[in-house]
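A.,

Following up on our hallway conversation. Structure tokens first:
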């Protein structure tokens, strides 16, 4: 019998939303002795646990009652003010605390944007491949996709013009810095053009900049959001990649009227981000501890990126191609078109190496011959060893 009404809608949404293949892979291999290129996790050895421990004691001693109390949906005011100043430094010149909403990581910011702008059949224009968890969030609102290919300069923006005319997307989603999964950085010219198109077509723009601080070479580029006036633009960031993901403190920048709407939706979901965690993050930043932490991460992760690039050159040259990221946590490997990365995973896993097959990052159903590698979680010797094993698995296929 055909499903109708609310039941049909729920069934459709459940079919669209599946468990993250990355999380499922990590759950099934938990506790094993693996070289993991699969996770999206920072290296926990680099978390500033000692500094956070001391700050936590002071916060509880000096402000414990408020730190453990409910707080405003918009977030802890001193933290919002600190972030607004940082946004001005990045090129969002009008940023004030009223432009900032504190979220449970940048993932909640993506979901809030989807809740505002998307419903069944609404089109999302996005790069392909794109961030898996964003695709899952959009799927939960039964969105459709208008995918735009990537090249070495990021989204091929001119190819988006026809899609904007034909589909009138309800949301444009982009990751211009060290894109997940490819590691590609969008050029300034492409950013400018994308911003102008979003404004021209009055399309909401959602810019995910989670990896902004993890730049290993080159000069920082301005956010897409800063390059053309757009009252429906949302820029997201997070402290998960620089301080610690377990704190679940992220943020978004938008115009105050939109922030107010997003705050109402957030309040329905979770009331507010944890008061204690927000104070920890604020004190860590206000005490000028963030920049040294970022410097440590950059130095460490740059060396690991370079180790992976060198290992790929040594082991996979002639068998595959790959991106060369200027920052971030990932690079993307393209295998010969007849190979299926998903089919290679069991053999690699049996030999103690994990990676993420690339098909899930392609909302258009492509990418079977691609895979994503994380270069920040493993030490350099493990990276070299794991890459050699991966090359042997590919060569044997």
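Then the amino acids I'd put at each of the 397 positions:
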């Amino acid at each position: 019998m055909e499903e109708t009404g609310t039941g049909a809608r729920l069934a459709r949404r459940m079919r669209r939303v599946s468990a993250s293949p990355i999380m499922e892979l990590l759950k099934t291999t938990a506790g094993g002795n693996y070289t993991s290129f699969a996770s999206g996790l920072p290296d926990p050895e680099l978390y500033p646990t000692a500094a956070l421990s001391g700050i936590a004691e002071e916060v509880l001693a000096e402000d414990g009652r408020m730190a453990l109390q409910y707080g405003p949906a918009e977030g802890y005011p001193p933290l919002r003010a600190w972030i607004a100043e940082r946004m001005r430094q990045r090129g969002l010149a009008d940023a004030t605390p009223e432009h900032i909403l504190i979220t449970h990581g940048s993932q909640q910011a993506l979901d809030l944007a989807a809740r505002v702008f998307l419903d069944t059949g609404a089109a999302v224009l996005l790069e392909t491949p794109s961030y898996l968890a964003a695709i899952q969030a959009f799927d939960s609102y039964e969105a459709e996709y208008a995918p735009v290919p990537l090249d070495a300069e990021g989204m091929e923006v001119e190819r988006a013009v026809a899609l904007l005319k034909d589909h009138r997307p309800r949301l444009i989603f982009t990751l211009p810095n060290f894109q997940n999964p490819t590691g590609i950085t969008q050029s300034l010219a492409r950013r400018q053009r994308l911003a102008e198109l979003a404004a021209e077509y009055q399309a909401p723009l959602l810019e995910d900049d989670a990896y902004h601080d993890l730049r290993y070479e080159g000069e920082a580029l301005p956010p897409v959001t800063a390059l053309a006036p757009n009252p429906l633009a949302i820029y997201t960031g997070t402290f998960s990649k620089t301080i610690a993901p377990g704190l679940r403190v992220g943020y978004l920048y938008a115009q105050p009227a939109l922030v107010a709407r997003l705050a109402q939706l957030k309040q329905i979901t979770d009331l507010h981000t944890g008061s204690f965690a927000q104070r920890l993050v604020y004190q860590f930043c206000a005490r000028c501890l963030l920049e040294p932490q970022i410097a440590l991460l950059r130095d460490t992760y740059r060396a690991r990126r370079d180790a992976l690039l060198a290992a790929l050159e040594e082991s996979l040259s002639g068998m595959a191609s790959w991106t060369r990221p200027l920052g971030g946590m990932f690079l993307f490997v393209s295998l010969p078109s007849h190979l299926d990365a998903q089919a290679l995973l069991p053999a690699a896993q049996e030999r103690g190496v994990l990676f993420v097959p690339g098909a899930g990052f392609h909302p258009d159903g492509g990418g079977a011959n691609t895979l994503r590698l994380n270069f920040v979680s493993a030490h350099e010797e493990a990276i070299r060893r794991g890459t050699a094993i991966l090359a042997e698995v590919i060569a044997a296929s």
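The CA atoms of residues 232 and 356 lie 33 Å apart. Curious whether your intuition agrees with the design.

B.
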